[in-house]
Known about the structure:
- Helices cover about 45% and strands about 15% of the residues.
- By secondary structure, it is α/β, with parallel strands linked by helices.
Amino acid sequence: MINLSVNVNKIATLRNSRGGDIPNLLDMVKIILDAGAQGITVHPREDERHIKRKDVFEIKEFLISYNKTTGKKIEYNIEGEPSERFLKLVLEAKPDQATLVPVVPGEITSNQGFQFPRDINLTHFFALKMKQAGIRVSVFVEADLNHLQEVNKSGADRVEFYTGPFAYSYSIGKGKQSFEQYKKAAEFVQSKGMGINAGHDLDTENLKLFRHLPGLQEVSIGHRLISKALELGLESTVKLYLQTLLEVHADS
């Protein structure tokens, strides 16, 4: 089963654009979870342009209550740069998973992964601190075998493949060629004993191919899911994504 973790950054961006508390982030999280999503993802950047520090802890408390009320186990994933700021936040919030992501000042969104062995010392330091607190750690990477050498020494439990290049290739009719590159990278990562997540520009069309990635455990999706929700509604969109992911079993 491939889990769907919905990134709610875009909802926070809309709220922040007007000020106040509309749309209410926790109300939207509840709709997402009631529709069947298995996780919530946030990326609290230093400039707080979408997710604010208080959001991190309010969502955490909401998920604790939601889990108790429903008997479900919803996973909380917090993304961020390897820094003392982010480490402190993660250790206070204690999510189920922390995803380390390289952040370039001024970037609109994440658009590159770590490179190993170059970044081993950087990620290993922060990953170790988080794992000592009982938090699973993932590192954001590209499907480039040249950048995945010694990825198992990164300190992380999983990788999260940056799927922007795949989504673009799919849009111009070259999805199968791109998928083969990701497949080789996934097989390599599995051979190193690591789990696999993925995210960035995945949607209900390109997931029909990408859901077949060997070892894929979780997809984290925000922008395209929220954009689709403007057309179909949030509940219906989450259910559509979940159905797309479930159909992998029927295809197998």
